[in-house]
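Handout, section B. The chain below has 88 residues.
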Amino acid sequence: MADALTVDIVAPDGKVWSGAASRVIAPSVEGEIGLLANHEPILSVLRAGTVRVTSGTDALEFPVTGGFVSFDHNTITIVADAVSTDED
């Protein structure tokens, strides 16, 4: 299946990652949320945990300390309080 989602992950200090994906799993305060193309619109608060993005053959992980996730029209925006990356 081709990548069908547009994903933006941002933190207070700027954009962390942006690109196409086929799946995103995010740690919501109500449990993990799995998002695929054509999912129902959602807005949820994130808890500390790991956002997992499947982009092509890559499996990316972004540890977050909290924030929120928004999904609408196959676009996912994750606004994190802080994100840990390999460069940290």
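Note. The chain is about 0% helix and 65% strand. Compare this with the example in section A.
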